[in-house]
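Below is a filled-in request sheet from our internal design queue. Each sheet records the structural input a requester submitted and the sequence that came back. We keep these sheets so that new team members can see what a complete request looks like end to end.

REQUESTER: design group, bay 2
PRIORITY: normal
MODE: inverse folding
CHAIN LENGTH: 88
BACKBONE (tokenized):
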């Protein structure tokens, strides 16, 4: 835990980098959540056959919240797969 002495006031140059870092980390976490949610939604729309083609099952898709996913690449691959099979 960090303690701030009341005898030493903090100035803006000390506070700004810390606030900026917290905001950047929160934004990164939010982006990751949104990307994972988009990937899960796209996977849920695939047929069982398409899931089997990429080595997944419905159970895998339902547990996707607990596993890390690559960034947007997975969503792009699914979109390409769906467009080629006419499953838009």
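RETURNED SEQUENCE:
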């Amino acid at each position: 835990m960090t303690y701030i002495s009341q005898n030493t006031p903090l100035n803006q140059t000390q506070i700004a980098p810390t606030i900026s870092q917290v905001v950047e980390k929160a934004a990164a976490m939010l982006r990751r959540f949104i990307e994972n949610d988009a990937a899960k939604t796209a996977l849920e729309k695939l047929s069982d056959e398409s899931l089997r083609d990429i080595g997944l099952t419905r159970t895998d898709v339902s547990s996707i919240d607990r596993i890390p996913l690559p960034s947007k690449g997975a969503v792009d691959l699914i979109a390409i797969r769906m467009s080629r099979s006419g499953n838009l």
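SHEET NOTES:
- Residues 12-45 form the longest helix (34 residues).
- The chain has four helices and no strands.
FILED BY: M.R.
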